[in-house]
């Protein structure tokens, strides 16, 4: 993320520290489970969801206190849980993630299943109780509702189920979009919407921010599909060419590479348009949208 | 549970209906995931945790409205998620549960992982938002906090990790107790404590109820270990003799069968003693304690 500005570096340092503090200690019994949880969460990652959340908070003028970090951690814990389970042999069967051995390779399958399970629980636990989190109860409830809807069978997990069902199938463009709106899009939208909830009142720009989130959620996936073809394993930190090898429906397979790139750019334009009511305070959201479409890993 | 009274039959019918209403419809996309969730939750089960929760509510004189059903559902959804994941090949590798094919046998491993994941999410989702649930926000937050602590790496999932680490190991009695206090005990305690939270104020008997819950949580596991030796697969609805086959540390393996039965009876006495401050309104809790130690499946 070296092409992003100082704000992102500050946010990255914030989220790393916040996650580190909130994860169970590695020497706390059962130690292997806690080590696996820490390994999977603290092992790098682009932290796109926390960045979106912090950038939305910035756009809304929310004060950056420790209390702001808890929902960012919850988002990243849910993301980390989903990666651990998606990488399992019964799912995508991946051995490499962020340039390192996936959780079930580093430890074992049972530990990986439990680490994912426990990270999901920790996300909801933190939103209900976290010593640095002083949001009002009604805000916490809204955050938990929003995150759980984005995470469950009508959100991210449902999208992963659609993805598995689609292997070897020919999907239409609306079907592929519906898959990714759930699989990747739901948690990305939640990242923006959780900051709006933290703002504590209805914001006139709420719908525009939500539209922004929908566009970049989809753009993120289109770019992922493009990178699976154009990048290499070392740069990606995960196995390149996996989609083709698994005969997965992707935007390039459906639209071709050129039109997929056009689609990503159109979504970027749409996302940026929906921020037109904001001045410079939404620059981080603009930078992130650009980063998502132009990133190389 | 035919040896229990009318109250339990009413509660059982309550929880079956409440779960049925709150699970995603089987024809809602992605259908296989939703079918797997329903199959695993609605496929029978003793509903011990909801029964404990309802019985504690009865002991405290809480009114039986639809609102009372939501935490009962959350408890059973967490329990169902844990069973699906525990049965996976990488974990206990069980093909039979409640006399039926386990989720990954009936569907496939990927679907079973996602069904467990989604049931966990649904539990927290319902506590944050459920159309029939009108508890105050501060009560909801306390319920989510209590349930998440009981469910995560410092509770049930941690206990399962200890259990896997203990395979083939010789455990001391305190180590075995610690394992079960987490693996089974945490959610059973939460079942009692969530009803206390729903009561909405500090109850003078709170500590006694918590002690009751600790005792029967452990008694439940001791009796489980005894049944694994003394019962048969058909009666149990799951594979009998599994503990010995997997060389698991159990109470009978550590204490012998006679002393294990004595321990279960001592725990029963202790549990009943802690209810001495209650009159007939705690009879269901007394019946449940008796049932847990004297059950044959």
Shape of chain A: globular
Which structural class best describes the helix and strand composition of chain A?
A: mainly alpha
Helix content of chain A: 55-70%
Spatial ordering of strands, largest sheet of chain A: 1-2
Oligomer: homodimer
Structural account:
The structure is a homodimer of 297-residue chains. By secondary structure, chain A is an all-alpha fold. Chain A has helices spanning 6-22, 31-42, 48-59, 69-86, 103-106, 109-128, 137-151, 156-166, 173-199, 206-230, 233-236, 242-245, 251-255, 257-273, 283-294, and strands spanning 96-97, 100-101. Chain A has a two-stranded antiparallel ribbon with strand order 1-2. In chain A, strand 1 and strand 2 (100-101) form a beta hairpin. The radius of gyration of chain A is 18 Å and the shape is globular. Chains A and B meet through helix 2, helix 6, helix 7 and helix 8 of A and helix 2, helix 6, helix 7 and helix 8 of B.
